[in-house]
Each structure stands twice: as structure tokens, then as C-alpha cells.
Amino acid sequence: MTLRPLLSAFAAGAMLIAASSPGLTASCGSGNFDAWLADFKTEAAAKGISQTAIATGLGGVTLDPSVLSRDRGQRVFKQSFEEFSGRMVPPRLSRGADMLKRYGSVLSRIEQSYGVPGEVLVAIWGLETDYGVNIGKFSTIRSVATLAYDCRRSEMFRAELMDALRIVERGDLAPSEMRGAWAGEIGQTQFMPSSYIKFAVDFDGNGRRDLLRSAPDVLASTANFLASYGWQRGKDWEPGSANFDVIQQWNKSEVYSRTIASFASQLARAP
Fold it and tell me: CA 205, CA 218: separation in Å to the nearest integer?
């Protein structure tokens, strides 16, 4: 599930044109994609990205027309809370309860570190990717490069592409591993590259922040995101609470946020 605030906040926005500085900033939609990408590589180098990361991350990248089609085809989220939660929560509740038990010790350590209860993290995990089963198959770098080249939200996705290269540079993931949703979300709770850079943590202690394969890293990074936005330890998360406001930083949709809160509450009551 990828109803992310980063996208919905801009879905009906005006066209954003990148400001251009000769040799440093690649202007959106200028020339063909290959020419734009060459300019972007120059810009990335000027911003301190290594030539190795640029070459491995952007080598052979092409425009993906299917990403542009999906971006232009986004529809406003119109389902009611009852409709959406009724469709999304019941099929995931039993497995969510199992995940709470399976990762009980990890979730307990995460709550000690970040203050976020396991029920909230498991609810997000289930809603976003069915607990890591459906993370998406789009090439992350190709997707964000395509959206950075397109002029609708060029500035935002150019920054995301820079951060995707930083993920490569610091050794968390290889470009070939970076596959996810069509708009660039990565991993089992669907972090945009910028959120990956800011909030991903190595909770399993293997030296990598791996949000594709490591459940401890996934859950702790999600907790780090929520804690960074002011999650209050030991408080509830129902609508109207301060913690519900934090959940809305995860997803601006009122319906989606209420579904996370409801799902977490049902998990808390599960036997």
C-alpha cells in the first residue's frame, strides 16, 4: 500500500520547473532523457556524490513510460474509513497477531529505544506491504529518475534521486536490489529514498540498513520515523491524540491514518 503523503500532497499540484544553473542543475524535460541524465550526473558530482556511486547507480538508466502513466493516472482517495478499513484490516489481522508474537523480543527492544508500541509498527507493516510480501517490482532509481526528468514534480524527485544515490554510496543497497513501488518507495514499510537516508537504522547489527530483508531494521526504522515526529511514549494513538497526529505524518490521508490506528488497537486486543 503506497498512499504516501509525499505523493498525495502534490497529486494535484502545479507544474514545478527546476531552476537551472549552467553545468550544475539539470532542468526538467530539457532535451532528451539521456542528455538530461548526463547533466544530472554533473550535478550529483558537484553535490559530493562519488563517481563510483554515480556510475553504478545511473549507468544504463532509461525513461520508464509506465511510471509517467501511473503518475498521471492517480485518483483522489475517496473511500470512507469504514470501506477502506473493512477491506484492509480483517485479512491482515490474524497474521499481524502472529507477527507480534514472532518478533515480540525485537519489538520490545524497539519500544524501549523509540517508545513506539509494536502494535502500531505491525499495523503499518501489514497495510504497506502485507508484512514484506508485496514490496513492488519497479526499479527505484529508474522510477525516481523518470519522475525527476518529468516537469510535474521535478524538484522533489531530483532530491529523491540524489538520496537514492546516497543509499548506494553508503553501501546499504546495490542499485539492482533497489526495487519497490512505482513512485520510488523502498522496502517493507515503503520509505522514499529521502526517508531512508534520514530514518533507516541498522537494528540487527550487521552493518547495513536493510529495509528490504531485515525485519528488525524495517520495524526499528519505522519507529525511528514516528519518534522523530514526536511520538509520545506510553500514550494512546486514537484520533484526536498527539500520537495520532504523528501517524498522520506517516500518511496524510485521514482514512489511512485512522485505519492504522484502528488496526493497531485491534492488534492490542488480540489474544
Answer: 13
Q: How far apart are the first and last CA of the chain?
A: 26
Query: pLDDT band at residue 76, thresholds of 50, 70 and 90?
Result: low
The answer to whether 128 is a known catalytic residue is yes
- Pairwise CA distance, residues 73 & 152, whole Å: 13
| Residue of 128, 160, 185, 238 with catalytic role | 128
Paired strand residues for 138: 180
DSSP states of 156-174: HHHHHHHHHHHHHHTTS--
Contact 170, 62 (CB under 8 A): no
Mean pLDDT of 96-103: 98
CA separation for the pair 209, 202 (Å, rounded):
5
Q: Taking 60 as the threshold, does the pLDDT of residue 13 lie above it?
A: no
Q: What is the pLDDT of residue 10?
A: 41
Distance, CA of 170 to CA of 222 (rounded, Å): 20
Beta bridge partners of 191: 186
Q: Is 171 left (phi over 0), alpha (psi -120 to 50) or beta?
A: left
**What percent of the chain lies above the pLDDT cut of 90?**
83
Handedness of CA 134, 135, 138, 143 (dihedral sign): positive
- Specify whether the CB–CB gap between 233 and 225 falls below 8 A: no
Chain segment 209-245, per-residue pLDDT in tens: 999 999 999 999 999 999 999 999 999 999 999 999 9
